[in-house]
Amino acid sequence: MGLRRILLLGEGNFSFAASLCGAAGTHVVATCYESEEVINIRPLFLSFAIAGAEVVFSVDCTKLKDYFLAGKREFDCIYFNFPHCGRKAGVVKNRELLAHFFHSSAEVLAEEGEIHVALCNGQGGTPADQPRREWHNSWQIVAVAAGAGFILSDVHPFKAETIHGYKCTGYRSQDKSFCVEGALNHVFTRSTPLLCLTPMSCRIQLESQNISFQVPQVLVDKINRGFLAPNSNHPVRTVKEKLTAGLSQAFPLQSTDSCLSLLHQSHLHGVCPSRVFWITLSPEETPSTEEMSHGLANAVLFSRVDFCQDTDKNVQEGRHSPKQFCLRPSLLPHARAIIQEGAFLPGTLHVLSGPVFRKCRITPHSLPVFHEMLIVFAVNRGTESSCIQMLVNNIKTTIHSLHQTGINPNVSLQEATSSETTELNDFAAFESQLSKTQYFICTDMDPPGSCVGILRTSHELISSELVVVFASLNLDLLAMLLCGISDWRMLWTWDTRFLQQFPRGELRLFKSFSLYPPSYVHDVSFWVPHGEPFDEVAFHTIARGVSGEMVISIQLRDAFQQPGTGRSSLCYRLTFQSCDRALSCREAAEMQLRFREEIHQHLGVTLR
């Protein structure tokens, strides 16, 4: 392994550089903005030379690639302690300095390198500053860094007293020290680039025929991810494995995963058609053996767009096609099909699992796609209550055994009422539409009353003596609760730093690698088509698709009805924020413009 190359910028008296020289396995390049004539560090040159360090004068931190040859540009770590434009420069000037610095650093930093920026207390503008300045009066370091593709991965106190020989100088460009009490060191790393969500199609085998369909834009990066695959170390799979192992100790168990179709034909009773992803199928040529080998339930992705774009609109207007299908919003129809086909064994737990897809409003715990674990078993009539309690106790015991994370949620069984359904999350509300729900499986974690499972019974499917019990668990919400993941989008990140925290078969407390991400607020006002109800779920779904799940909140700010004409106007506030990638102010503004175009085209609104 080669030397760790460290670049120091803006050194004043080179005392910080001197403290690093001689460290094993490192090569230090110390620079300053001033010329050699201005800075007298000759007493330090001997120690630098002995340690093998370099000193470079007159280095502009905004043009770093100009000072290093192509083969010597990849630094593993860049330090910039207490940057400042000099004298009485205000926050705007210093933001500009940081912006140019981060863009310049991107050209000389190794792919997995780090940038360390030390700032005085309050300057950064993050919640780590105590006290915290108002955002407009800070250097807004996370937003500035995001513009160059960096995320804040760590922040900790800058302890000058622990750095041997270090003395801070340069107050207002003078040879004076300044207060570093409460100073913070901000550590930045490269972000994965924003995804380019190009249209994509999926080819599957359905009833011995090869067909294809266009993947809804909001799901392009979520189809065929393989979280439940045998070789996966994703926490969603680990939760499923732990639950299955716990159930198998108390019940005979049969598991069904890979043979379940992604599609469901016709409408689901009780479910609003606007809550599912409708698609139109097209006949396709036979896929190659190689293509089929990479599929999920025989699904293959490819970039080709030649299918119906107006499926959702057709459904809303009541124009149904005999080839109308939707992406499965639940595994419940699959379970009922197994029972009706006679493949169901009374007394045995049948476990089905896989991703399901639903349109929903944007909230921290509303998931347009998640992994459902559906447990089905038959019991003698009159014993269903005790069997349900036994099942819930087994689930509770298994969840409590997964306390390696330090998080031990209390699991409870709540009897369902219509009022509770509206107070619980979107998962509970949708499940209650599918069929009558008797019980919710809830936790005491944030938000309070989070529903992670549903229990329902059916008296009609097998015989008059047997009752079928269905238990649906949201594996994604369980993984979030057990691993301390506050944002569901993190489960779907492409950043490898997420899965690196979860060894195969282990659940650990998640540590975010993107701290205090910047957020950007944009408003949109429009007239809704006269006489037509406004589809708010479709509005949220368009925001998800256009932004690549970068919209974290949509709030209705104002509703207005024009006297005389009766026309209605709505004003919504959108908040853009990424949980795992760098999102710049410019990128958020571009997303807002595309969103305005999309709602005008697909919802028929007139922008104001």
Q: What is the secondary structure topology, with strand pairs?
A:
Layout: E1 4-9, H1 15-20, E2 26-31, H2 42-51, E3 54-56, E4 75-81, H3 91-105, E5 109-119, H4 141-146, E6 150-157, E7 184-190, E8 201-206, E9 209-214, H5 235-248, E10 253-256, E11 263-265, E12 278-280, E13 282-283, H6 289-293, E14 300-302, H7 311-316, E15 324-327, H8 332-340, E16 349-357, E17 369-380, H9 384-401, E18 411-415, H10 418-423, H11 426-434, E19 439-443, E20 451-458, E21 466-474, H12 475-483, H13 496-499, E22 520-527, H14 536-547, E23 551-561, E24 568-576, H15 585-603, E25 606-607
Parallel strand pairs: 1-2, 1-4, 2-3, 4-5, 10-16
Antiparallel strand pairs: 5-7, 6-7, 8-9, 8-14, 9-13, 11-15, 12-15, 16-17, 17-21, 18-19, 19-20, 20-21, 22-24, 22-25, 23-24
Helix pairs in contact: 5-9, 5-12, 14-15
Q: Total domains, how many?
A: 3
Assigned CATH class of the largest domain: Alpha Beta
Treating each run of at least 4 consecutive H or I residues as one helix, how many helices? 15
Global outline: globular
Helix and strand content put the structural class at alpha+beta
CATH homologous superfamily heading of the largest domain? Bira Bifunctional Protein, Domain 2
CATH topology of the largest domain: BirA Bifunctional Protein, domain 2
Which ranges are low-confidence, i.e. pLDDT below 50, for 5 or more consecutive residues? Answer: 285-311, 315-320, 418-423
CATH architectural grouping of the largest domain: 2-Layer Sandwich
How much of the sequence lies in strands comes to 25-35%
Strand order of the largest sheet: 3-2-1-4-5-7-6
Biggest sheet character = 7 strands, mixed
How many strands appear in the DSSP assignment?
25
Organism: Sclerurus mexicanus
Catalytic activity: tRNA(Phe) + L-phenylalanine + ATP = L-phenylalanyl-tRNA(Phe) + AMP + diphosphate + H(+)
Protein name: phenylalanine--tRNA ligase
Subcellular location: Mitochondrion matrix
